[in-house]
Amino acid sequence: MADIKVSLHDAQMEIFKSPARFKVVAAGRRFGKSRLAAWVLLIKALQSKSKDVFYVGPTFQQSKDIMWGMLKELGQDVIKAAHENTAVLTLVNDRKIYLKGSDRPDTLRGVGLEYVVLDEYASMKPEVWEMILRPTLADVKGGAMFIGTPAGKNHFYKLYIEAQQDDDWEAFQFNSTDNPLLDPKEIAAAKSTMSTQAFRQEFEATFESFTGGIFKEEWIKYVDNEADFAEGTIGHYVVAVDPAGFEQSSKDRGLKSSKLDETAISVVKIVNDEWLVKDIYHGRWGIKETAFKILQAAIESQATTVGIEAGALKNAIMPYLEDEMRTHGRWVNITDVTHGGKRKIDRITWSLQGRLEHGKIKFRKASWNDHFISQMMDFPSPLSHDDLLDSLAYIDQVSVADYAGSIELEDWEPMDAIAGY
Asked: Which end of the chain has fewer CB atoms surrounding its CB within 10 Å, N or C?
C-alpha cells in the first residue's frame, strides 16, 4: 500500500488525532472543515478491513461539489478507480468512499459502514443520523464525525452539548482564525459588514438563537439631505416587491382585514455598498392596481430593475404589469427574487441585520417609517406582519441582479456576500 502523509494545520490535527469514536466539530467559515473531512475519509477507508465509508452532505450535488475534487487530489496515490457519475472512489485496498446527499435517504440504507462524515449537519434532518446512519455502524462499531458551522440552537447544538457528556463522544469548537492560512484582513472585512450575531455564528462558531431582539430601533438612521434621493446624484434605484393576495372582498373588511398580508414595494437607491430607502409602498390592492403601483414606483424613481418574489402571485401579476408597460410605453427589467432555500427568518435576518447595525441602510423620513419600525421590532413574532421587512430584504437580490446585468461574462454568477444569495 502506498504511503500517504496527512497534512493538516494544528487545530485540524487535534480533531484528527482524537481517539473518540464520535466527534462533533463546530467550526467557523474557512476553518478547513472539508479538508479535514477528506483526510479522515481517506485514512478510515485505508484502515478498514471489511467496510466502506460515507461522506454525506445536505444534497448529493453539494457533496460532489465540495468533496470530489479534494478527495481525488489528496488521495491520488491511493485511488485505484474513480466513478464520476456515482461519485464513488475505490482505493488500493478495494475499500470505497461514497459521496451521498441527506436529501436522498433511500440511498443511505441497507449497508454496513466503517465510518461516516456528516457535513453541515445543521442543515440535515436529525432522523438521517438517528434512524438511518447510526444503525449502519453497529456491525464493526464504526465511527462518525459531524462537522459544520452552527445554524442557531437546533439539533446540531443539541448534539454538540450531548457530546460533552458521553465518553464515546468529543465536542470541538474552533474559530475561523484558528486556521493560520486565512488572511486576518478577510475576517476584518466580514466583521465590518455582518451583524454581531451573524459574525459570531459564522466565524466564531457560537450557537446563536436568532430569536427576539434581532433588530434594534437605534439602528434606524435617516438621511438628512433629501437631495440625496434626487435623480442624477450618485447611485441608482432598484425596486423589490413582496406580493400578497389581491382585492379586498367585503368579508375581508373590518377587523379581519388587519390580519391579512399586504403587498409591499420597496424603492431603494443603491450608493456603493449603502441603501437609501426612499419609499416602501404597502397595501392590499386589486391585481390591476398592484401592477400599476409597481410600474409607477419604477417610473417615478427611474429604477433600473424590479424584482418580484417568484411564484403564483408573480405569475398572476405579470400579464397586468405587461399591459401597464404597453399602455404607458415604459418598459422595465423584471427579475425573480426567491427565498433561496432559506427560512424567512434567516433570509430577512441575513439581508438586513448586519446592514442596519453597521449603518449601511438609511431611510427617508416618511409616513411609512412607523409601520416599518413596528414590524421590525416585532420580528420574528408569528402574530405580527413582516411584509415591509420582507420586501426590503429582497433588495439584496435585486441589486446583485441589476449589477450582473451589466456584466458580459460567461459562467459568472454573482452573490451577495452578506445575504449569501
From this structure: N
